[in-house]
TrEMBL record:
GO molecular function: holo-[acyl-carrier-protein] synthase activity; magnesium ion binding
A GO CC term attached to the entry: cytosol
Keyword Transferase applies: yes
UniProt protein name: L-aminoadipate-semialdehyde dehydrogenase-phosphopantetheinyl transferase
Gene giving rise to this polypeptide: LOC109100902
Residues annotated as domain 4'-phosphopantetheinyl transferase: 113-231
InterPro entries, A to Z: 4-PPantetheinyl_Trfase_dom, AASDHPPT_N, P-Pant_transferase_sf
4'-phosphopantetheinyl transferase N-terminal domain boundaries: 12-110
Origin superkingdom: Eukaryota
GO BP annotation list: lysine biosynthetic process via aminoadipic acid
Protein keywords: Transferase
C-alpha cells in the first residue's frame, strides 16, 4: 500500500471568515483551544492545517468517518490515533506533520515508522551567518559541519544547514524522542550535494552512534527555499520479490500540494459555530520567524521565559526536538558566556 505525502501552503492562505470558522468546527475542542493560544496568525494557520491534514488522512486511508474517531497525544505531545479507533481488518497508519516557513506537511505510512520535517532557508536576522553557526555548533558532527561550510556562499551554507536540520528532525520525530536527544549521535552522509525541485532523493545515509542504520530518507524541495525530509523505518510488512526473499522498496513519493477545498473534502463539523473564534483570529499579530524569536531572547536577557518560544513549536509536539526551543537554549547559553 502506497504512503501519503501532502503539503498545504499556509503562507499564501488568507482565510475568509467562513473558512476559518468552518475549520475550527472540524477539529476537536481541545485542539481548537490550543490553536487559539498562538500569538501569531501564521502559527495558528499552520497548526490548524496540521490537524486538518491528519483527520483527512484517517478518513481517506483508514475509512473512518470524520466524526467517528478521536485523536490523542502521547506524553511528549505527538498526535496519534489510538488503535482502538481503527476499523477491524484495516491497516493502521502512522503519520507525522510539520509546519514551518510557508508550508504544513504530512507524511503517512501503513505499518511503518515515519517522521517528517520542513525547513525554510532564511537569513539569521541581525546575526551573521557564521555567528549563527557558532551558536548552533553542538547540533552537528564535525563531518556535517565540513559539508555545510564547503557548500559555497553564506546562503548556500545556510541552505545546507537547514537540509541537515530537517533530516535530523525527521528521524527524531519518527522515533518519538524528546528534547534530550543528543543530535551529535546522529550523523548524515548527504547525497547528492545539490537537489532539484520536482525530484525526490533517497541517497542520503544515516549513522547512529557511528553505526550505519537501515533507515530510508526521502528528501525533496517544495520550492527553492523549503527543504522537506521524510524518515522511514523498516517496513513491518514487506513485499517479497519473485524469489520470495527480496524486499521491494516502494518508489519515492512526491508531495502533493493541496488547496483548502482539498483539505476539507471529507470534513464534517464536530463543534458548534463560534463567531468569537474568528474575532480572536483577526486580532492576532502578523508573522514571526525563528530569527526574530532569537533576537527577542537576546534582547530580553537570560531571564526570558523560553516557554514563549516553545509554544510556537510545530505540530509534531515536543517529541520533535523543536528548533525554536533549541535555538532559545543555545542563545541563552551565549548570553551567559558574554554577560549580555
Amino acid at each position: 500500500m502506497e504512503g501519503v505525502r501532502w503539503a498545504f501552503r499556509c503562507g499564501s492562505w488568507v482565510p475568509t471568515r467562513s473558512e476559518w470558522t468552518l475549520a475550527a468546527r472540524c477539529v476537536q475542542q481541545e485542539e481548537k483551544e490550543r490553536i487559539a493560544q498562538f500569538v501569531f496568525a501564521k502559527d495558528a494557520k499552520s497548526a490548524m492545517a496540521g490537524r486538518l491534514l491528519i483527520r483527512k488522512l484517517v478518513c481517506e486511508k483508514m475509512g473512518l468517518a470524520w466524526d467517528g474517531f478521536r485523536l490523542e497525544r502521547t506524553a511528549r505531545g505527538k498526535p496519534f490515533l489510538p488503535r482502538t479507533s481503527s476499523t477491524p481488518g484495516v491497516t493502521h497508519w502512522n503519520f507525522n506533520v510539520s509546519h514551518q516557513g510557508d508550508y504544513a506537511v504530512l507524511a503517512g505510512e501503513p505499518g511503518r515508522q515515519v517522521g517528517v520535517d520542513v525547513m525554510k532557508t532564511s537569513r539569521p536576522g541581525s546575526s551573521s551567518v557564521q555567528e549563527f553557526f557558532r551558536i548552533m555548533n553542538r547540533q552537528f558532527t564535525d563531518l556535517e559541519w565540513r559539508n555545510i561550510r564547503k557548500a559555497g556562499s553564506d546562503w548556500d551554507q545556510l541552505d545546507m544547514f537547514y537540509r541537515h536540520w530537517a533530516l535530523k528532525e525527521s528521524f527524531i520525530k519518527a522515533i518519538g524522542t524528546g528534547l534530550g536527544f543528543d543530535l551529535q549521535r546522529v550523523e548524515f552522509h548527504i547525497s547528492p550535494n545539490q537537489m532539484r525541485e520536482g525530484q525526490v532523493y533517497r541517497q542520503t545515509r544515516m549513522y547512529l552512534d557511528s553505526e550505519a542504520e537501515d533507515w530510508t530518507f526521502e528528501e525533496s524541495l517544495l520550492d527553492k527555499d523549503h527543504h522537506v525530509a521524510v524518515a522511514l523505518g523498516k517496513p513491518d510488512i514487506s513485499t517479497a520479490g519473485e524469489d520470495g526473499g527480496t524486499v521491494c522498496e516502494a518508489p519515492p513519493l512526491s508531495f502533493t500540494l493541496l488547496s483548502f477545498s482539498d483539505l476539507m473534502s471529507k470534513a464534517t463539523p464536530l463543534l458548534e459555530e463560534d463567531p468569537a473564534y474568528w474575532e480572536r483570529f483577526q486580532s492576532k499579530k502578523g508573522k514571526a520567524n525563528i530569527q526574530q524569536a532569537i533576537s527577542s531572547v537576546c534582547l530580553r536577557g537570560p531571564a526570558f521565559n523560553k516557554s514563549l518560544l516553545f509554544r510556537r513549536s510545530r505540530d509534531g509536539g515536543p517529541a520533535g526536538a523543536k528548533m525554536e526551543f533549541r535555538l532559545a537554549v543555545a542563545t541563552d547559553a551565549l548570553q551567559k558566556h558574554t554577560n549580555m
